[in-house]
Amino acid sequence: MKTSLLLLSDTELQKKLQRQDQLAFEVLFDRYWKRLYSFAFKIYKEEAICEDIVQEIFITLWEKSINTNIVNLEGYLLRAVKYKVANYIRDLKFDSGHVEILQNIPHPSKTDKHLVYQEFEAGIFMEIKKLPPRSQEVLILSRLEHYTNIEIAQKLGLSVRTVEKHISDALKLLKMKIDPYQFSVFITGMLLQC
């Protein structure tokens, strides 16, 4: 049974994990433990502490698996390691060695962040292109070109109520297709551009 789980993607294993599937958890543990430990050890060179930190992260993953939907599990786990190590060091009595370690924690570059955002944006636009043509047109005019509902209605020869319905339906469809966190980022981004 565990052998067949080895072939599953992180997303498929997460779905099983949400149902408290212990074998799926073991596969994820085996898949990521060494990588997380190595990452922790690069930051803080104490084996026992790094082992404890990775163990705590997996315990938290198991305990919160029912209510948590993670988009990129590997990224999530690596960030968790980085923050746990940083918190551990912060709680220690500081000396110059600890300050140096904190300064050397890798941070994503602006280029990395930009690439991640571009990938995220491309995914959103791919989902928008799957919408019915009229809903797609109305959503683009509303959220990307910042037309008011009245302006959209006049431009497309629709009633304001129909425009509102298209926007509502489009957002509902997108919400079903996009991770809730990503969807909220998308909506927030659209609001900030107004």
UniProtKB/TrEMBL annotation:
It comes from Flavobacterium xueshanense. The keyword Transcription applies. Belongs to the sigma-70 factor family. ECF subfamily. The keyword Transmembrane does not apply. Residues 128-174 form the RNA polymerase sigma factor 70 region 4 type domain. Keywords: Sigma factor, Transcription, Transcription regulation. It holds the Pfam family Sigma70_r2. CDD domains: Sigma70_r4. GO terms for biological process: DNA-templated transcription initiation. The lineage of its organism: Bacteria, Pseudomonadati, Bacteroidota, Flavobacteriia, Flavobacteriales. GO terms for molecular function: DNA binding; sigma factor activity. This is RNA polymerase sigma-70 factor, ECF subfamily. Residues 28-92 form the RNA polymerase sigma-70 region domain.
